[in-house]
Amino acid sequence: MYDFTLHRPTSVDAAAAAIGGASDGKIMAGGMTLIPTLKQRLANPSDVVDLGAIAGLKGIREEGGNIVIGATTTHATVAADPTVKAKIPALAHLADGIGDPQVRNRGTIGGSIANNDPAADYPAGLVGLGATVHTTKRQIPADDFFIGMFETALAEDEIVTAVAFPVPEKAAYMKFANPASRYAIVGVMVSKGPAGLRVAVTGAGPSVFRLTEAESALGGSFTADAVAKVTVAADGLNSDMHASAEYRANLVSVMLKRAVAAAAG
Amino acid sequence: MPTVSMTVNGRAVTGDVEGRTLLVQFLRENLHLTGTHVGCDTSQCGACVVHVDGESVKSCTMLALQADGAEVTTIEGLAKNGDLHPVQAAFREHHGLQCGFCTPGMVMSAVDLLKKNPNPDEGEIREWLEGNICRCTGYHNIVKAIQSAAADMKG
Ligand SMILES: Cc1cc2nc3c(=O)[nH]c(=O)nc-3n(C[C@H](O)[C@H](O)[C@H](O)COP(=O)(O)OP(=O)(O)OC[C@H]3O[C@@H](n4cnc5c(N)ncnc54)[C@H](O)[C@@H]3O)c2cc1C
Ligand code: FES
Ligand code: FES
Asked: Which of B44, B45, B103, B146 to mutate to test the pocket of ligand 3 (most atoms within 8 A of CB)?
């Protein structure tokens, strides 16, 4: 790992100033992705700005009917939070399935979405529930936030401060996990609620996407039968040592049916 | 060079580190607490697990400076007055180790599990150990040791 100057600001303003003032600055939250990247010398920032000492970025609150999760709230906190478990159990379940206990004790929602790994779970959670990303500059609907592989709508010096989730009537997340890392080979979030009918798929493509065919089918009837014939083409899906594009395409149909069955309860 | 201060196994310590110094490096190289191991560079094996402010974390994936002001417990801090912690004693009793490389991380992870869930079933133990890899034992005796420690700690 190359050396860098570490900053530990205690306010969002100080963090924004530190990142703005650095010649090549990098934000750090849980470090669960950034530190392994630095160890491999895949990045060489002059400055790293750790958000961990900013109390205002942590925690979960209810606000205007939404559940608002601070950017540096860990996966373990989301998984165990009584409000999230009561209002959006599908989101608590998603957070509880990320990596392993020690990854969940450090990794954060803001870091996960800013990184936008094609196999990450939270992107499906945000798009599938119709969440809104709050940053130091604006509010971005999840549909416009995730742009492509490891690419988001965030500017270089823009910091995610929170994510606001509307409370769905029903929702469920099902993933087929990579047995080694627990990242999603394919993960599907379905929901029905204030944000409409939503089906979001992670792991299968270069970035999370909505499955509109399934959404229309669920508009007719919210049952696993209604989506039984929904398929996706393998063209353009990810293919790697873990799963071919064809296998992923099939997994999308399987996870979709399981998620709808679980949400329909 | 920045200075870091923390409490490690009940003792206040301080040292000069670089921005990039990992917590595990600080523990092993500055404090000579070599019970905490490094088994990978992908944050997957769990040989480096310690407790920071009561939560189990991978000390290879945290900067020493991020632990500034924190309470850190390593495997060396578990035994009290020469008596092994019940989880350590159970690993010995039930042959929960062979080469021992993964053991410090396994034990620290198991202690965190039993704090959160004093009565885990076999499935919950196996799921919890997702982030701890053992190349030797096949895990059966590790799971047995943790079940036995859970019973001892209740009794
Ligand atoms: C062994 C292992 C298994 C894992 N398994 C899974 C899994 O099953 N599913 C899954 O989804 N993920 C998994 N992860 C990733 C994990 O969820 C990480 O928590 C996540 O990728 C990054 O979050 P972080 O808080 O650690 O971010 P960091 O590593 O600190 O940062 C990641 C990136 O986000 C940027 N960033 C961080 N916070 C902000 C912010 N508030 N605003 C703007 N930019 C920001 C950083 O600059 C960096 O580029 C795994 C990781 C490991 C090591
Ligand atoms: S050394 Fe492998 S996870 Fe820390
Ligand atoms: S005892 Fe050898 S790695 Fe676990």
From this structure: B103
Which residues in chain B show pLDDT less than 50? none
So what's the ipTM on this one?
0.96
Taking the domains of chain B in order of start, what are their residue ranges? 3-77, 86-154
| Domain segments of chain A as ranges | 5-50, 58-264
Nearest residue to A98 (alpha-carbon basis) of B122, B108, B105, B131:
B131
List B94's β-bridge partners, or say none: none
List the single residue in B20, B57, B65 with the smallest CB-CB distance to A105. Answer: B57
The Cα–Cα gap between A34 and A84 comes to 27
Q: Please compute, for residue A136, the number of CA atoms within 13 A of its CA located in the half-sphere on the CB side.
A: 18
DSSP run (H or E) holding A88: none
CATH number of A5-50: 3.30.43.10
Residue A249 in contact with residue A231, Cβ under 8 Å? Answer: yes
Nearest chain A residue to B116 by CA distance is A80
Q: Is the dihedral of CA A93, A202, A58, A142 positive or negative?
A: negative
Q: Of all helices (H) and strands (E), which one includes residue A199?
A: strand A196-202
* In this structure, CATH architecture of domain A58-264: 2-Layer Sandwich (3.30)
Inter-residue contact A232 to A252 (CB < 8 Å): yes
For the domain B86-154, what is the CATH superfamily, name and number? [2Fe-2S]-binding domain (1.10.150.120)
Chain B: residue whose CA lies nearest to A106: B57
Per-residue DSSP letter, A38: H
Residue in A4, A101, A181 nearest the CB of B19:
A4
CATH number of B3-77: 3.10.20.30
The pLDDT tens digits for B84-126 are 999 999 999 999 999 999 999 999 999 999 999 999 999 999 9
Q: Is B155 helix (H, G, I), strand (E, B) or coil?
A: coil
Three-state DSSP class for residue A70: strand
Q: What is the pTM of this model?
A: 0.97
What is the CB neighbour count within 10 angstroms for residue A258? Answer: 18
Please state, as a whole number, how many other Cβ atoms lie within 10 Å of the Cβ of residue B32.
Answer: 8
